[in-house]
């Protein structure tokens, strides 16, 4: 449920192994892609930012009707609302196996004002309730698993860690990029022979967007004309933590950063950069962009924060810096800007780590093995269907 391209490799592999796979998602950009891979798509409606109890109940009932119609053996949900609503609807529809994946805890687990504390407590109450309905919980890092244990939200016997989504490391490799493509892109973006720093993220406060801009301002004050800072991403409309446009536009108008907005040529942009940066203090699962940058053989600077530190080993494939610290980010950047050999050394280790830890085949096998383990406990169900 609530699927996107991150889950596609798993779904495709299941379909290739003759599982009957359904994808329940809101209608969107990738909806038409599912049938091409033998995956049946079912659309449903959900409002990400809504707290209207009538709309939320309507969504739960809609999911319930879908589950009653298709009678799956396995229901696998992702993200906060689909996890909660899917578990409730799955229990009501008597789905034999319900699995939730916790894809990070998000912004409400970062701030500590009255509103975020209230929302966090509310989310925890719902999680404590619905995780009793679920057969198994997958976490993407051990910090989130520890948080759930500490707050009595999940039992140890019902939880495991599978790190990240997994990516195609053959696809995300420098070998897959043609030299002419990089030359064309560099010319298109007017980058000349500059050293390129890149950040890709949703434009919300906790991704460290403003810290990145301020570090760029520091670096450019004494490396004027030789460094370019690229920022890729779009404004997350309706998100209470979205960056105010006027704050970002100051850095754009003063040529401190080059803002590219939303892009589809992510792999090509990563190939172009010399250093990849994500100064996030968002409560991440594991940021996919960090895994992609590692797979592309790039040195990485990120924070010593939950999720981010799973990808970077300080001093081996990049630097881990304190959260909310533009000065430390600028210092780490200067080290890598000055030292091309160190960038190459870090990049080589990034590539090795991505292949060893985050290749899609590793993640897919761990997930399918979990399905099989749970199915063995339900020996009465043969010829099952799965909804992911």
Properties at a glance:
single chain, alpha/beta, Rossmann fold, 2 domains, seven-stranded parallel sheet
Summarize the structure.
The chain is built from 13 helices and 13 strands. The chain is an alpha/beta fold. The strands form two sheets. Strands 2-1-13-3-4-5-6 form a seven-stranded parallel beta sheet, sandwiched between helices.
Could you please describe the fold and organization of this structure?
41% of the residues lie in helices and 15% in strands. The protein has two domains: 5-166 and 360-387, Rossmann fold (3-Layer(aba) Sandwich), CATH 3.40.50; 174-357, Glycogen Phosphorylase B (Rossmann fold, 3-Layer(aba) Sandwich), CATH 3.40.50. The strands form two sheets. A seven-stranded parallel β-sheet has the order 2-1-13-3-4-5-6, with helices on both faces. It has helices at 8-16, 53-70, 80-92, 114-130, 142-150, 179-188, 209-220, 245-253, 266-272, 288-295, 326-338, 340-357, 360-376, and strands at residues 20-25, 40-43, 74-78, 97-102, 136-139, 159-161, 195-200, 227-232, 258-261, 275-278, 300-303, 318-321, 385-387. The model has no long low-confidence stretch (mean pLDDT 89). The protein has 13 helices and 13 strands. The chain has 388 residues and is α/β, with parallel strands linked by helices.
């Amino acid at each position: 449920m609530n699927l996107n391209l991150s889950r596609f490799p798993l779904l495709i592999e299941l379909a290739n192994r003759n599982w009957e796979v359904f994808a329940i998602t809101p209608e969107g950009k990738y909806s038409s892609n599912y049938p091409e891979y033998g995956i049946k798509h079912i659309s449903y409606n959900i409002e990400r930012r809504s707290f209207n109890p009538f709309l939320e109940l309507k969504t739960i009932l809609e999911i319930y009707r879908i589950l009653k119609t298709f009678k799956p053996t396995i229901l696998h949900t992702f993200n906060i609302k689909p996890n909660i609503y899917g578990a409730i609807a799955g229990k009501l529809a008597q789905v034999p196996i319900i699995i939730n994946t916790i894809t990070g805890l998000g912004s409400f687990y970062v701030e500590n004002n009255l509103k975020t504390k209230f929302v966090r407590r509310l989310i925890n109450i719902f999680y404590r309730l619905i995780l009793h309905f679920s057969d198994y919980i997958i976490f993407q890092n051990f910090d989130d698993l520890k948080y759930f244990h500490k707050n009595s939200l999940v039992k140890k016997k019902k939880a495991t860690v599978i790190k990240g989504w997994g990516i195609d490391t053959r696809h995300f490799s420098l070998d897959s990029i043609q030299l002419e493509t990089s030359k064309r892109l560099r010319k298109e973006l007017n980058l000349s022979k500059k050293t390129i720093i890149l950040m890709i993220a949703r434009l919300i406060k906790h991704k460290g967007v403003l810290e990145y801009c301020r570090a760029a301002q520091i670096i450019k004050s004494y490396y004027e004309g030789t460094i370019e800072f690229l920022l890729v991403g779009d404004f997350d409309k309706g998100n209470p933590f979205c960056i105010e446009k006027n704050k970002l536009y100051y850095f754009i108008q003063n040529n401190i950063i080059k803002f590219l907005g939303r892009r589809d040529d992510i792999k090509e942009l990563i190939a172009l950069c010399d250093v990849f940066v994500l100064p996030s203090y968002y409560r991440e699962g594991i940021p996919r962009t960090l895994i992609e940058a590692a797979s592309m053989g790039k040195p990485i600077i990120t924070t010593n924060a939950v999720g981010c530190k799973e990808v970077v080993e300080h001093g081996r494939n990049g630097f881990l810096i304190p959260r909310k610290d533009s000065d430390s980010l600028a210092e780490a950047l200067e080290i890598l800007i000055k030292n091309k050999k160190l960038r190459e050394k870090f990049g080589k280790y990034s590539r090795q780590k991505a292949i060893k830890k985050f290749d899609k085949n590793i993640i897919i096998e761990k997930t399918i093995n979990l399905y099989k383990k749970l199915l063995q406990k339900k020996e009465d169900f043969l010829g099952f269907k799965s909804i992911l």
